[in-house]
TrEMBL record:
The chain crosses the membrane at residues 12-31, 79-97, 103-124, 131-149, 155-175, 187-207, 227-247, 254-276, 282-301. It comes from the Eukaryota. This is UDP-galactose/UDP-glucose transporter 7. Coiled coil: none annotated. It is a multi-pass membrane protein. GO terms for cellular component: membrane. Signal peptide: none annotated. Keywords: Membrane, Transmembrane, Transmembrane helix, Transport. It is found in: Membrane. Residues 24-300 form the Sugar phosphate transporter domain.
Length: 323
């Protein structure tokens, strides 16, 4: 399914892309957590995911399975900053999963709208509506309350997750300012993003000392069949997530993608309490997550009302990716 941005998508494609993005995004959190619990070199995992994506699209184009165009230097230069911030966001998010349980990780990532709203004001986009501002503040308050009740609190892990929020905000701002998706199909956007990521990620795994130890450990781990299955699943789901994220953004409104993100977060938070471990249930922790989720739902409702009130206005990509 390769949709050009200028095409009018059918309702079935819109629904399928939204549902696919929600499922892929939710699954990816748990799969990455499972991989990181056994293999701590998160940036090497990200590099493998992007390499697999690049190779798949490249050979798919050569074999005629996709109409994606080759690399254009002007487009690559335009998308390079977006790719850098995108991968910085994912790299810090992966690293944070080493010390942060999934419900708290999702709660921290819901601080992104607050950061985006602040960035919007700083960049002259104007003040948000009262309901949007209050819902975002409620989401942030829930995150703080949940953190106070998180007995497995890991300061370094929290710092990595918050840094990921910053990079995600910068990524979204750059997407809006550069119009990165104009004229490109979902496959082409994914190809540029993964291809441009490889030099940046290769530099990082060398500078941080992950390579070559990460490679030798990976080869040793791959002899263990359960880990090999999870790793392959991680590589496949990395491709699926990137594709569905860009596809959902292209064929749906930003409002739809935002609601999908919130619903995904609710499901992931609930499952996070019973899967993979690492969560000590406490009244304060649960209360904070409930407040955080309520803020996310209110935020989506506020954006829905805003959309209904101004149907002619295209919503910004700043709300397009709730991860």
């Amino acid at each position: 399914m390769e949709v050009q941005p200028e095409m009018e998508p059918s309702s079935s494609i819109s629904l399928i892309s939204a549902v696919s993005y929600g499922i892929a995004s939710m699954a990816m959190v748990f799969i990455n957590k499972a991989v990181i619990m056994q293999y701590p070199h998160s940036m090497t995992v990200l590099t493998l995911q992007q390499l697999a994506t690049s190779l798949l699209i490249h050979f798919g184009r050569r074999m005629g399975y996709t109409r994606a165009k080759g690399i254009d230097l002007a487009t690559a230069k335009k998308l390079l900053p977006v790719s850098i911030f995108y991968n910085a966001n994912v790299a810090f998010a992966l690293a944070s999963l080493k010390g942060v349980n999934i419900p708290m990780y999702i709660a921290i990532k819901r601080l992104t709208p607050l950061a985006v709203l602040i960035a919007g004001v700083l960049f002259g986009k104007g003040k948000p509506t009262t309901q949007v501002a209050l819902s975002v503040l409620l989401t942030a308050a829930g995150c703080v309350i949940a953190a106070l009740g998180d007995f497995s609190f890991d300061l370094f892990g929290y710092g990595l997750a918050l840094t990921s929020v910053f990079f995600q905000t910068m990524y979204l701002v750059l997407v809006e300012k550069s119009g990165a998706e104009d004229g490109l199909s979902s496959i082409e956007i994914m190809f540029y993003n993964s291809f441009l990521s490889l030099p940046f990620l290769s530099f990082l795994i060398i500078v941080t000392g992950e390579f070559p130890n990460s490679l030798s450990l990976l080869l040793a781990k791959c002899s263990y069949l359960p880990f090999l299955v999870i790793l392959i699943l991680s590589l496949v789901m990395g491709i699926v997530l990137n594709f569905t994220m860009f596809l959902c953004t292209i064929v749906n409104s930003a409002l739809t993608t935002t609601i999908v993100g919130v619903l995904k977060g609710v499901g992931s938070t609930t499952l996070g309490f019973v899967l993979l471990g690492g969560v000590e249930v406490h009244a304060l922790n649960v209360s904070g997550l409930v407040v955080n989720t309520a803020g996310g739902v209110w935020y989506s409702y506020a954006k829905y009302r805003q959309k209904k009130a101004k149907p002619a206005k295209l919503m910004s990509d700043l709300e397009a990716h709730k991860k």
